[in-house]
Amino acid sequence: MRALRFGQHGGPDVVEMVELPVPVPGPGEVLLRVRAAALNPVDVGIVAIPLPFVPDLRLPAVPGWDVAGTVVAVGAAGNEITFGPGDEVFGLSRFPRLTDGTFAEYTTVPATDLARKPPELSWEQAGAVPLVGLTTLQAFEAIGAFDAVRGMTTGTRLLIEAAAGGVGHVAAQIAKAAGATVIGTASKPRHEFLRSIGVDVPIDYSTTSDVFAAAAPVHGALLSTSANAVKQAVRTVEPGGFVVSISPPITPEDAAIADERGVRHAAILVAADGAGMSRLADLISQGHLRAHVTRAYPLDRAVEAFEQVKSRRTVGKIVLTP
Ligand SMILES: NC(=O)c1ccc[n+]([C@@H]2O[C@H](COP(=O)([O-])OP(=O)(O)OC[C@H]3O[C@@H](n4cnc5c(N)ncnc54)[C@H](OP(=O)(O)O)[C@@H]3O)[C@@H](O)[C@H]2O)c1
């Protein structure tokens, strides 16, 4: 099969196309014919440096965690394998472990990391959902944002940083479906896109010195980009509200300020989760969530795709299609 592989850390051009044997699914795993696999900033990151949260990485390695594809074989029978050949599935494979990545024609995936692909999604859209969708669900769950008492209801004003990006555009739709008023930051040319995904209040971060002051009152914040936003958020989110960061971490000093003000806070790392994928599939089928795929690249143009994601100016998602 054709696959991408990197044998040393470095820029996007250390990723090369190689021929490898089709992998064999182990116990509890399925073999997928990959139809689409989104590229995330963490893929650029793991190619660049040995990330501390990716355990036991051995090079050369096939990168890629997101996947949508068709089951072609199942490993040794186990109760956890509820899929059979021909089933169309999607998921985040083994994250944060990287063995047998998804940027290839075939990949093995633990069955417990997968859910059935909603039929109304294209392959490209399905491959774009898992990492960003699970990140959103797990971030909101970690901070109790879906909690019926403390959670998002009509009138909750939620600020989403980088709302035009991969995580941001999915988080905006999920928050909207939960009843929040969504405030999203992006540069001005992205504001029409923000409105198209349901953002109520777009704010241009490049011309606004304190987006939290501009957005006040803010009851919750999902942060993904700047340390300065974390600093502003813990100081301005309403008491009783929350700050959840997927990047960067919340410093002990900022955490202490949040505690003092009665603002809940958390920083999370996403994890593979088949049950979470089923919840995302439900949101998709109910019409609440669509991944926006800006561009799909064939595997042999992966270096261009890596460069695009590395720029951190992507609207929605970039996908590879083997
Ligand atoms: N902890 C976790 O488990 C986890 C999971 C997923 C992602 N992450 C991290 O979260 C970050 C976001 O991921 P992603 O996939 O959403 O990235 P992405 O798709 O590459 O984000 C691109 C977007 O970021 C926007 N942007 C860039 N600088 C900005 C700024 N200063 N303020 C507001 N928006 C800005 C860009 O908008 P403009 O073009 O308008 O600038 C662009 O639309 C990454 O660092 C990623 O590694 C962490």
Named once each, the bound ligands are: NADP nicotinamide-adenine-dinucleotide phosphate
Query: Given the structure, what is the number of helices?
Result: 10
Helix and strand run: EEEHEEEEHHEHEHEHEHEHEHEHE
State the CATH architecture of the largest domain: Alpha-Beta Complex
Counted up, domains total: 2
Instruction: State the end-to-end distance.
Output: 10 Å
Helix content: 25-40%
CATH H-tier superfamily of the largest domain: Medium-chain alcohol dehydrogenases, catalytic domain
Q: Tell the overall outline.
A: globular
The first-level CATH class of the largest domain is given as Alpha Beta
Q: What percentage of amino acids are in beta strands? A: 15-25%
Can you give keywords for this protein?
322 residues; alpha/beta; Quinone Oxidoreductase, Chain A, domain 1; seven-stranded mixed sheet; six-stranded parallel sheet; 24% strand
